[in-house]
Amino acid sequence: MHEIGMTIVEWIIGLLVLGGALLGALSAFGLLRLPDVYTRSHAATKSTTLGVMSILLGAFLYFVAYDNYVSAKLLLGIVFVLITAPVAGHLIGRAAYKSGAPLSDRTVQDDLKHAPHTDTQLREHTDGQLPHERERQRE
């Protein structure tokens, strides 16, 4: 029974690591093939996050199964990647949009087109004060 259990764990670990590596390769392919910075950022963020998390989870399971060692560093690495990678991708996309990076010709909808992007534009849509300025006046 122990032999069968370890074989299943080996397969799970192998599939996680292989799947993570394939997702990393897919991410690299997306960076090369996609037309603009927004879709490239999306490809890099989504697939790389899942790929790295899969590889780290495979490594975690390996250490648990073979060394009876629970690695808090690997768990923290998984949580760190899960939290930071999507936020970084969002910020890169937002900065690209604010700096005027062009959208692809195939882009159908621009949701941020009418959103205020600068303090001056935001003042035009409000009563002339930014939210943090109103907070200072209340104090």
From TrEMBL:
Residue span of region Disordered: 108-139
Asked if the Swiss-Prot or TrEMBL record annotates the protein with the keyword Transmembrane, the reply is yes
**Superkingdom to which the source organism belongs:** Bacteria
Q: Which UniProt keywords apply?
A: Antiport, Membrane, Transmembrane, Transmembrane helix, Transport
Q: What Pfam families would the database entry show?
A: PhaG_MnhG_YufB
Q: GO CC terms for this protein? A: membrane
Cellular localization per UniProt: Membrane
Q: How does it sit in the membrane?
A: Multi-pass membrane protein
For molecular function, the Gene Ontology terms on record are: sodium:proton antiporter activity
Transmembrane portions of the chain? 12-32, 44-64, 70-92
Tell me the protein family, please: Belongs to the CPA3 antiporters (TC 2.A.63) subunit G family.
Protein name per Swiss-Prot or TrEMBL: Na+/H+ antiporter subunit G
Which source organism? Answer: Paenibacillus sabuli
